[in-house]
From TrEMBL:
Pfam families linked: adh_short
Family: Belongs to the short-chain dehydrogenases/reductases (SDR) family.
SUPFAM superfamilies noted in UniProt: NAD(P)-binding Rossmann-fold domains
Ketoreductase domain mapped to chain residues: 17-198
Protein name: NAD(P)-dependent dehydrogenase (Short-subunit alcohol dehydrogenase family)
Gene3D superfamilies membership: NAD(P)-binding Rossmann-like Domain
Alphabetized PANTHER family for the sequence: DEHYDROGENASE/REDUCTASE SDR FAMILY MEMBER 7B, DEHYDROGENASE_REDUCTASE SDR FAMILY MEMBER 7B
Domain of life assignment: Bacteria
Keywords (A to Z) from UniProt: Oxidoreductase
Location of region: Disordered: 284-304
Length: 326
């Protein structure tokens, strides 16, 4: 059993391990933080806003929680996160880079600003935070959990800014693992498939019919075999990190997709293209569409949709997706 796995709640000051989780105000980030707390870690949690409900919830698990509002796409904010962590705890044992944004809609409707925003949060947000944290992680032979996505391994229709940013994050995390071992730092590349986090309420939807975009995306995220319970996902990701796994792909569909794409990329791209033709089409053809709007702003959905997506709605209530609707 490693020192990570044998952490206790009753050790002397600065003896308890510390985990930092970005994007921890809700959804998977909150659940990762809770899982570390249940394993005896003190926590540093950050998000751009909406942290109070998550902080109060996490504190009930008997752990010290340092909650900091920060935008990890800004190098100064990432550096401040690490500096505050060292000032408060004197150590950092695990960094989980989870902050993200999901933009759903036809590629022709996506603006350059949407691509820039996705890259800022899900690529540069990882780079800035890791760069700032490396010296502190090295001091305690720490570990990095880089939360990417199946969208970073496979082409996904109507998710182009998200997929491109996640592809970049996968490349960065895999390359970092190659070099981090010499520094005594372990890197685990997390590749989740669809999860039932309730995040579709705060995902951003674009195109001619944002409500229709929300419907197909939420239906997929609510389907039990296609998607995964978020609590179970968090447990498996934390376990993989503490055991030093190189990569963790979650959901059978994601594992199958990665294997098929490696062997027959043309087949997977043709399949994705066929699926794309079933989705709502673009209103414009020059990337000059309207700014994407959050799912909770796309209007009332039909009753059949509410019945079929109960799992997603329940997850939104449980994992603080309703606390931060911005």
């Amino acid at each position: 059993m490693t020192d990570y796995q044998s952490a206790t709640r009753n050790g002397p000051p600065n003896a308890r391990p510390v985990a930092m989780v970005t994007g921890a105000s809700r959804g998977l980030g909150f659940l990762l933080a809770r899982e570390f707390a249940d394993r005896g870690y003190d926590l540093v949690v950050c998000a751009r806003d909406g942290l109070d409900p998550a902080r109060a919830d996490l504190a009930r698990h008997g752990t010290q929680v340092l909650a900091l509002e920060a935008d990890v796409s800004e190098p100064a904010d990432a550096a401040r996160l690490v500096a505050e962590t060292e000032r408060r705890f004197g150590r950092l044992d695990v960094l989980a880079t989870n902050a993200g944004v999901i933009q759903v809609g036809p590629a022709a409707e996506m603006r350059i600003a949407d691509h820039e925003h996705a890259m800022d949060v899900m690529f540069w947000g990882v780079v800035h935070t890791v760069h700032a944290a490396l010296p502190l992680l090295r001091r305690h032979h720490g570990r990095l959990l880089a939360v990417t996505s199946i969208g970073g391994k496979l082409p996904a229709p109507h998710l182009l800014p998200y997929s491109a940013a996640k592809h970049a994050a996968v490349g960065y995390a895999e390359g970092l693992r190659v070099e981090a071992a010499r520094l005594g730092i372990g890197v685990t590349v997390a590749v989740p498939g669809l999860m039932r986090t309730g995040s579709t309420r705060n995902a951003l939807f674009a195109g001619d019919d944002p409500a229709a975009e929300r419907r197909w995306f939420t239906l997929a995220a609510s389907t039990p075999v296609l998607s995964m319970d978020a609590e179970r996902a968090a447990r498996r990701l934390v376990t993989a990190t503490l055991r030093g796994r190189a990569e963790m792909i979650l959901t059978p569909a994601a594992k199958l997709g990665v294997r098929v794409h490696a062997l027959a990329p043309g087949l997977t791209m043709r399949t994705a293209a066929a699926v794309e033709r079933l989705l709502p089409g673009p209103l414009t053809l020059n990337g000059g569409g309207a700014r994407p709007e959050p799912g909770h702003s796309t209007g009332r959905q039909p009753g059949w949709f509410a019945r079929l997506t109960r799992l997603d709605r329940d997850a939104a209530h449980r994992w603080h997706e309703l606390d931060d609707p911005a």
